[in-house]
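pasting input
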Amino acid sequence: MGKNKYITAIVVGAGAGGGIVAKELATSNIKVTLFERGDWPSYDKHFNDELISQRVQDLGTSFGPDGKKNPRVLISPDGKRNTVYRAVNHIAACVGSGTVSYGAMAWRFMPEDFKMKSTYGAVEGSTLDDWPISYEDLAPSYDKAEREIGVAGDMSGIPFAPNKDNPYPMPPFEYSREGEFLKNVCQNMELHPFPVPMLRNSVPYNGRGACIRNRYCVGTACPVNAKNGTQNTVIPVAMQTGNCEVKTNCFVYKIHTDGKGKATGVAYFDENNKSKTLEADIIVLSASAHETARLLLNSKSVEFPNGIGNNNDWVGRNHQGHSYTGAVALFDFDILDLTTGPNTTLGIMDYNHHNKGIIGGGLLANEFFLGPYAFTDQRPPGSPTWGKEHKKYQRENYQRTGLLVGPIQEIPIFDARVTIAEDVKDFWGVPVAAFSGGHHPLDKINCQFLSSKAEEIFIKAGAVKIWRRGGGEGQQGGGQHQGGTCRMGNNPATSVTDSFGRIHDMENLYVADGSLMVTNGGFNPVLTIMALAFRVGGHIASKWM
Amino acid sequence: MKYNRRNFIKQCIALYGSTLLLPACSTRGKTQTYRSFSPLQADCLGAICEQIIPTDEYPGAIDSGVVNYIDRQIYIRFPELKELYHEGIQAVNSYCTSVYNKEFTALSWDDQTQLLLTMEKGELPEEHWEKASQREFFRIVRRNTMQGFYGAPHHGGNKDYISYRMMNLNYPFIAGQNRYGEK
Amino acid sequence: MKKRYYILIMLVAFFIVGISSYVTWNTLYPNYTCALCHEIKPVCSKWEQSVHAEVVCIDCHGKALESVQSAKEKLNMIYTHFTKKKTFEDIYLSEKQSLAIANRCAECHQAELVAWKSGAHSASYKDIFMDVEHNKMERPYWDCFRCHGMFYDGDIDVLMTMVGDVDKWKIKETKQMNKPTISCLACHQSHHEQPRNIPYEKMDENTRATLAEKAKYPATALYMRADRRHMPSADLQKITLFEQDSLRQIIDDPNTLLCMQCHAPNTARQIGSEDDKTPTGVYEGMNCITCHDPHSNMLKTSYRNVHK
């Protein structure tokens, strides 16, 4: 490399991971091109419309992608293939990606989550393993994520919280009516409730104002720009350095390599659907667990006949996605108050680890408000699903229905995987991702455990009717919490990247998104993805500059 | 017809005259017209939707524009559903005619309810359902009815925000200018 | 030879027929023209019943061949109607159209125009979005448009550049700066009007019976930017306000509710919070327009307005 030449980098995907990597590199004077297949998000196009939101996608997705242009193939256990032309299992496709539309819960994983195998031992039928890094290794990156993106919360006094002595940059959100009520119940049960840490401004922060406690928060963009994502924090910082160009509506479909362990550039379709190439010294993939795996698997060459980094057949394996479980309860008074923000305010992590007979576990939090349409399916088992009774239930019980839910830490399996459906092409003619494999049997047991705990809390709370949610079965679809497909590890034979996200055998190709996660913890993953991106980005900057 | 001047002028006058007659069309019926359904089909579909969300103290599916919602969604988003709807409506009516000797809309309220309950379980005689699956048809109609009634009005249903009013949802959402975060 | 003759005849006939049809079309009553389409029929019949019945469609919508612009707009409508999958629900006004209609309103409603111009509601984009003192405290965002610039066609980033120091933030297009942010259609809906003024003795029984009901129905409506449509004030939901934990009395008046959509409290509905201007103390339960002129917002000068 010549002395007068800048080091150049390509980051694929401007979501939770890519935005952060772009900022870390750009502020270290590396010239970054940040690729995003979607556009800049606009609140106008995606206002509070329940039928086109990231949670309910009956008429489409608010932040893309277009399902008709981006099909998926689902392969059931009996090998039956089903091509779906709906936007399933996409996080979002816009600058900021899921961080524009998420509920914005900001969980740190616990130290045990990085040492699942040492804590619980090997599990039959599972690829459960330790991470190549410990909680302590990632803690400084968690700190950075919480400060640079912005988190409001308070974990002091929570014995299980690894950051109980390390305050957040913003005070916590006040409890909603349901949160306050359930907090008292939890305290009486000697559990340890706390306000859920949120990537939202509880007070003015980082040059933007405070949250207005809008109830349509999750699934849509923030009308006052008080929800923190990469699109309104790190990406603008990266752009202001003058070192970062964001290429929107550009879809990267292949990585070029030189056959000697080096990635040379990417091929992409620009906004006019013309195929182009761009070269760079460093390439970072942050396209989400599904799309990163798809991109690697689609990048075949003599050196990598099965896709880059896939000579040991580990790319796309250990696909995880969180079964969400819990319980629903009907009260004889209005437990919800629609004027206090999006509702999720109370969390407990008593059921993450150290529960007899349970490997992992999961958090419980009171759920975001459901929209009126989503509520039409929220009925006790055996109740009418239509007709006069159904309509009456809808108006009488919408504000009397409480939900306590959480993601169960999954027990990863080798056969839950993302592959390429060679015969099914997307709008640009690129083979699409296919999902196969299901769940480890323990997932169902763990879901039953967590939902029974949610039920217990509701019994103590005096609910008139309670029913549990199941989960942990069926096809592994990934969903919004997709992860695990490019596992990081020290052994190249049983992992895809090293502990800094570099693809084994590749000098300059990195991954920085949910794909890296060895196990997915019993927590919503976004803050961990952000921390991983700070770690990968910081490492690249220090190594290359 | 021979192509000559007289015929040509005749045709021209006929053409112009017929456009002047256009206003006559406007007097034909006062009911809404649909892109995907004939008036009879729309009546039958409306009756099914009304069973799913009946009128009580609040308007039901018909008055809140659910049929318009379904018609619009088929037109702009899901043209593939048109066939299922047509076949489903036909099957319902063919069953009604064979058993009650009248169409679905003419059945009593309770008979309609009973029929849909049976259809939901997939237990109507299969001979009427050779083309469409009765359970699938019911599932789609139910789902679309719920969307139409409880979704945002700009999709074509939920006329005058009726479901939001019914559920006391405080719409439009009111929030003052954020006074620089001072709480 | 014969062929050429026919073509000539055809052309001449085409012109004569075309022009005469166009003229006839423009002079006919809407029922025989615009209202032929099933989609706009309800709107036309509503209009016919309204106080504005004498204003015909083309007075606001313009004639097709009035100008190149108009011809283009109308052709585009026809093209969209037949080729793109758009329906009645997709129709909404651009800012340009909303301001054109406001100009049409002003042709007759001169007094209201003057009042509006004298008051704060005629603030321009420049007044609102280039207020450095405000911007220092909070960066403009989408939600500003909910009340200021409801019809603006773009996002906040389309309207202005917010790079560098706050005093350098500015509106990108100069011609946008002086446009008003709140025009007639912010609070009035074109096709949802007060009933026509008919002398009582000429009313039929039915109209008389519903007279009291209709009188309650004000001529105002809220333009909801997110939905790109109006909600008549009478349909706005009643709001409850609190002072700490105690409920405060608010008049159940559509116009007051309309004011409160923008002069709004925080989501916890605390009286006096954020932009809330709800009357308290001896004024508790009063209607905004009892004291304020609806178009200028100025206090009405005569006590007679209150104590008649």
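fyi The mean pLDDT of chain C is 85.
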